[in-house]
Amino acid sequence: MFSEENKMSEQFASFNRSPARDVAFWQGNTALAHGALLAGCDFFGGYPITPSTEIAEVMAEELPKIGGKFIQMEDEIGGIASVIGASIAGAKALTATSGPGFSLKQENLGLAYIAEIPIVVVDVMRGGPSTGLPTKTAQQDVMQARWGTHGDHATICYSPSSVQECYDLAIKAFNMAERFRQPVLILSDEVVGHMREKVTKKDPGKLKIVNRARPSMPPEKFTPYEADPMTGVPAMAAFGDGYSWHVTGLTTNDWGFPTNNASEIEKKMLRLMNKVDRARKDIVEYEMEYMDGADIVVVAYGSVGRSALRAVRDARKRGIPAGFFRPITLWPFPGEELARMALGAKMILVPELNCGQMVLEVERVVKRRSEVRGLSLVNGELFKPSAIGRVIEEVA
Amino acid sequence: MPSAEVLSWLRTRFMPHIWCPGCGHGVIMHALIRSLVGLNKDKTKTVVASGIGCSSRMAGYINACTLHSTHGRSLAFATGIKMHKPELTVVDVMGDGDCSAIGGNHFIHACRRNIDITAIIMNNNIYGMTGGQASPTTPVGAWASTTPYGAVDPSFDLCKLAEGAGASYVARTTIANPKQAETFIMNGIKKKGFSVIEIITHCHTQFGRKNDRRLPMDNYNYFKEVSVPLTKAKTMTSEELVGKLVCGEFVDKNVPEYTDQYGKVIERARKKG
Fold first, then answer.
1. B222: which residues sit within 8 A by CB, 6+ positions away?
2. Burial A121-147 (b: 16+ CB within 10 A, else e)
3. What DSSP line would sit under B181-220, residue for residue?
4. For residue B125, is it left (φ>0), alpha (ψ between -120 and 50) or beta?
5. Is a pLDDT exceeding 80 seen at residue A19?
6. Which residues of B touch A219 (CB under 8 A)?
7. Averaged pLDDT, A140-157
8. How far is Cα B151 from Cα B64, in angstroms, rounded to an integer?
9. Which positions in chain B touch A244 (Cβ < 8 Å)?
10. How does pLDDT run across B225-245, given as a tens digit for each residue?
């Protein structure tokens, strides 16, 4: 036991001694917070909840150092509300939560969709429903991320499967939120949030940072929701920047005022959906390994992606033609890409830490061309690679 | 007729407004705009935030940086705005249900933090927009569509609630005294800290109709009849004060303001970091 610990502390020491300051040994939540800071995040509002709290703690410590603001709100609803408010005033704002808090945030998430307010919301998933398993992992919020708030909306949601990806996707999430003027979600999970790995930091000088389009016209000519015809995204003025305008959760016309006019309503709704749909190819991300000639394709995301990749690699070593496909964006789901890559596969296996959520999306895109089988684990633990490997062998 | 300057604060393009003829909310909006004009505020540096309800539509009618948010949550949105840009003047307009039922938690914590926001509560004792359901300020015994046999739950004293939670300025008046409303709102905006101005108004459509104050003037006269200035109330016994509405400035104190305090956090973090 002692020798183990000594070994660990030597590892830490070697990181600290490293002349290259561009690496860190972080847990996923810490990496996510640092990625957000690098992306320009200057506001955090939230409420303590396991297993996401470390994100708030890092932000509480780091934000004031750069003149940013951290506020612990009175509840989860206030957390997302403060973040939307700060963004309306021009901030790049983040909130982080877990299952029960994600449920509480849903109504205000809808406001950010309809009023087109860029924010980043992190859900470090734990087991549910309700209080469920606060310290155990799960992937049960996948469909809530897509459909949780009422009404139609276009979801952009990332799923990191490593600590490095927590860092990288936090930056990407802010860039996408700013580009599309809407909420972007990061569905992490307890395993990814709490495990520690090496992170290679990015050089801020070489980083692409996207900032929301600002209006260029004089204030009297400013039409707050008149979208750029190319992107479908309207320019956004911050409160206090010389423009007076109205933000509302009601369906509005281009002036930002409530409308009951059928053509104005439809125009607004379709634009909200299309601004993301038309850029789908820029958003969708996935990772593939061993897909050449794969008969059995394992589709897995987040922490399960790690177990699945190992299982596929082991299967290949045993001569089984297994392949690995990992959606990095859960929404939009890389369905066309999966359907194309898995064409001719005998079986698509979808291991998930839930009772079968993403497997429905896989079934939808595969359209019975291959057999699709879900593999559920809902005991609060992560799949062992062998559990996935056994099924691969069974069907091989 | 309002002055041209007052009219310039109205988004007339978006009228007619949704309020019933004779509604008290217009009196409050006029008092608020007169206060903003009197304090020489800039429309692009003034935020009016609101939640949901008849009162909350006011934000849309005011030509400023306006946010019509979700039911009960406006103070939490306003807190984010004020935190990010403390230089902005932030006013939050709320109804009684918005503020003290669904938004009660945000209200007490905004008081506790003492963040420099001016909250105007338009208390008409009812949920008007949804058709006259009981609110936390519906008087005991009053009719509402959800208390068809009379309300039995005691109502909130919003000023006492604000005082207890730590607001640095707390005042109450009625729409029968618009000049006082203007003065109190001005004092509230000038106060560096969280200010609460409760303005008693009426919903003759949903509340008055079933509670013997059918016409706007019935309500106006009732407010005049039951209002007692704070100075006079101090000389009255508790028996004499039954059924009265005490108006005046209950709290006016100087205590550390939240965004100022957070400014000190930034200083400390920068020294350490």
1. B213
2. bbbbbbbbeeeebeebbbbbbbebbbe
3. HHHHHHHHHHSSS-EEEEEE---TTTTGGGTT--SHHHHH
4. left
5. no
6. 44
7. 98
8. 39
9. 43-44, 63-66
10. 999 999 999 999 999 999 999
Nearest to B168 by CA among B103, B117, B215: B117
Tens of pLDDT, residues A57-83: 999 999 999 999 999 999 999 999 999
Structural tokens at position A16: 């600290």
DSSP tally for chain A: helices H, then strands E: 14, 16
B101 by DSSP, 3-state: which? Answer: helix
CATH classification for the domain delimited by A12-206, as one of 3.30.429.10, 1.10.10.10, 3.40.50.970, 3.30.390.10:
3.40.50.970
Closest Cα in chain A, distance from residue B86 (Å): 10
Q: How far is CA B26 from CA B16, B29, B115, B195, in A?
A: 12, 5, 27, 21
Residue pLDDT, tens place only, A274-328: 999 999 999 999 999 999 999 999 999 999 999 999 999 999 999 999 999 999 9
Instruction: Please report residues of A whose CB lies closer than 8 A to that of B63.
Output: 244
Cα distances (angstroms) measured from residue A309 to each of A192, A288, A396, B171: 15, 9, 17, 65
Quote the radius of gyration of chain A (alpha carbons, Å): 22
To the nearest whole number, what is the mean pLDDT of chain B? 97
CATH fold match for the domains A12-206 and A287-395: yes
Q: How close B76 comes to chain A (CA, Å)?
A: 5
Side-chain half-sphere CA neighbours of B17 within 13 A:
22
Residues of A in contact with B82 (CB under 8 A): 85
Separation in Å, CA of A67 to nearest CA in chain B: 6
- The residue with tokens 């990749």 is A309
Q: By the 8 A CB rule, do B144 and B138 touch?
A: yes
Structural domains in chain B plus CATH codes: 4-272 (3.40.50.970)
Closest-CA residue of A relative to B62 is A246
Q: Which residues of A touch B89 (CB under 8 A)?
A: none
This complex has an ipTM of 0.97
Q: Do A246 and B268 touch (CB under 8 A)?
A: no
Burial class of residue A244, CB neighbours in 10 A (0-12, 13-18, 19+): buried
The fold adopted by the segment(s) A287-395 is: Rossmann fold (3.40.50)
How many interchain CB pairs under 8 A, A with B? 151
Q: Which amino acid, residue B40?
A: N
Share of chain B above pLDDT 90, in %: 97
Rounded Cα distance, B18 and A263, in Å: 22
Chain B, 9-68: which have a CB under 8 Å from a chain A CB? Answer: 11, 13-14, 43-45, 47, 49, 59-60, 63-68
Q: Which of B48, B95, B50, B90 is nearest to B200 (CA)?
A: B95
